[in-house]
Specification:
CATH class: Mainly Beta
CATH superfamily: Intracellular proteinase inhibitor BsuPI
Strand order of the largest sheet: 4-3-6-7
Strand content: over 45%
Helix content: 10-25%
Largest sheet: 4 strands, antiparallel
Radius of gyration: 17 Å
Number of strands: 7
Oligomer: single chain
């Protein structure tokens, strides 16, 4: 019981976000680009799409990260799941990108995760969701 009270107190003091590392890495500026980095506004079947998100290390320490992207069809089927790993030095920003080549027309949901690694799967940023229509 004392442990539970201490845990609740700690979460209130430091907040849930920082308890899960959410303040260490921020994500922003999701876009779909081609291999030259030019934005693609109307993706088509069999076109290579690079799903890019900016990652910023907001902490004063170096951080290892895993950038995970899953693409889900309108039927709820995961049609692509990919990841990249790396490190961010303190206060560094970089564009993480993974490619996906859609094989069918349709509406897709893109879920983006940033974790500390693929083993411990502690989130460094909240999951984000984007939508894309492929013609």
């Amino acid at each position: 019981m004392k442990f539970l009270l201490a845990l609740i107190f700690a979460l209130i003091i430091i907040g849930v976000d920082s308890a899960y590392g959410y303040e260490e890495v921020s994500t922003s500026d999701f876009k779909i680009v081609n291999s030259l980095g030019e934005e693609i506004r109307s993706p088509v079947v069999d076109q290579q799409l690079n799903l890019q998100t900016s990652l910023k290390n907001s902490s004063e320490k170096n951080i290892d990260w895993a950038y995970i992207v899953q693409v889900i069809s309108s039927d709820g089927v995961i049609v692509d799941l990919n990841y990249a790993t790396g490190s961010l030095v303190k206060n560094q920003t970089l564009a993480a990108s993974l490619s996906w080549t859609p094989s069918e027309k349709g509406n897709y949901k893109i879920e983006i995760f940033v974790w500390d690694n693929l083993r411990d799967i502690n989130p460094l940023a909240p999951m984000s969701t984007q939508s894309v229509t492929v013609t």
